[in-house]
Amino acid sequence: MKSCRDVHRLVSEGQDRQLSFAERLSVRVHLMLCTACRCFDRQMDFLRQAFRNFPGE
Amino acid sequence: MIDTDLQKSLRKIRPTLLRFAMLQLRNEAAAEDVVQETLLAALEGKSAFSGRSQFKTWVVSILRNKIVDHLRRGAREGSLPLVDEQGDEDFDALFDGTGHWQEPPGDWGDPAAVIEQRGFYEILELCMKALPENVARVFTMREVLGFETEEICKELKMSSSNCWVVLYRARMRLRECLQMRWFGAR
User: B3-76 — its CATH code?
Assistant: First the structure.
């Protein structure tokens, strides 16, 4: 199984390129089992949403 | 909106536009230029503003397009500084020997609610300013201006993998900065 160190890189890269099927699968399985990486994944979504709304109202 | 109101609103919004442009272009003269063009376009295109969307949203969307044009032009003329391919910064220290988080990331809550909070974007701006110029350019092209990654790589003459690494570094730094200055501070 991939480590948190591997998975967090793939989470970031997943915002910039289409991950392979195997990569997507391993990320999904890891996220189901790991609270810390799930939080990281949500933090990355958070950044994306915050910058899409930049510079705020 | 009648003309004088429009002019007043544009004058009021100008500093915000300049800050927005500066963050992405990191060059005062260039930022002044795109803001001038934006104000002109807003005055000329005022009939296009339906009043349905927020005025600021409308002007910022014009500015975005001007910045995109500017970056594309810069890339064509080769005047955008190349992104440093090197950089020994890594985030391995965040993980222990077995690849687990030393300090597990926390729950930041609902983005939609947090970004509404007063002062949030000031902190985000601070964090943006702390990024190295080249990293910030790649990141804002991707996340603020919505370029596809492939186009950024092409325009800035970077390899795809280098592009991903730079974007990754930007996110890691911004995350660290927000954690410390926003989430950690409340």
Answer: 1.10.1740.10
Question: For A12, which of B99, B120, B167 is closest by C-beta distance?
Answer: B167
State how far the alpha carbon of A43 is from the alpha carbons of B100, B110, B159, B164, in Å: 17, 10, 26, 17
Domain boundaries B92-183, corresponding CATH code: 1.10.10.10
User: Into how many domains does chain A fold?
Assistant: 1
Q: Residue B111, preceding bond cis, omega within 30 degrees?
A: no
Answer whether B144 sits within 8 Å of A4, measured CB to CB: no
**What is the span of the domain harbouring residue A23?**
4-52
Tokens of B167: 């974007």
Tens of pLDDT, residue by residue over B116-168, are 999 999 999 999 999 988 888 899 999 999 899 998 888 888 889 999 999 99
Chain A residue with Cα closest to B153 = A16
Q: Does A54 touch chain B (CB under 8 A)?
A: yes
Q: Which of A20, A23, A46, A52 to mutate to test the interface with B (most CBs of B within 10 A)?
A: A46
User: What is the ipTM for the molecules in this complex?
Assistant: 0.95
**Interface membership of B184 toward A (CB under 8 Å):** no
